[in-house]
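Predict the 3D structure for this chain.
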Amino acid sequence: MPKPGKPKNLVKKPGAKSARRRSREAALQGLYQWLLTGDDAGAIDAHMREQDGFDKADRAHYDALLHGCILEAADLDAVLSRHVDRETTELSPIEHAVLMIGAYELKHCVDIPYKVAINEAVELAKGFGGTDGHKYVNGVLDRAAVDLRPTEVTAVRAAR
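Done. Predicted structure below.
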């Protein structure tokens, strides 16, 4: 029940996913397919847009993530390779895709606080990845954030 004076549409149902979360999930699924098959990004994009619930996703964010991660895959892997314990091609495809999304958001989505970008990647890993994959994702992206957002990371850590 909404609080008095608060519009109904602003009350979030427990467990309801935000449009950004949905866009990350769709991008993750598309990147997973791309990593496994190497299929054309346009075909993957068309397939993802047909999925149930896609209409509730933040389409602009989805487009940026899916197409940005594919276009910048080599650059994102270069950033990640400094913080992973093996070649990125040896990571599980889910963890690899989640790390690419996290690194992309850290690099390009400065409107999203770095801790939020990392947390969202961790949530993706919890939902789609292996048992402890989220811990690995958290550690890698926490270290990558120092490279990609040094001023923000330093400010947040100094404020503790």
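The chain has eight helices and no strands.
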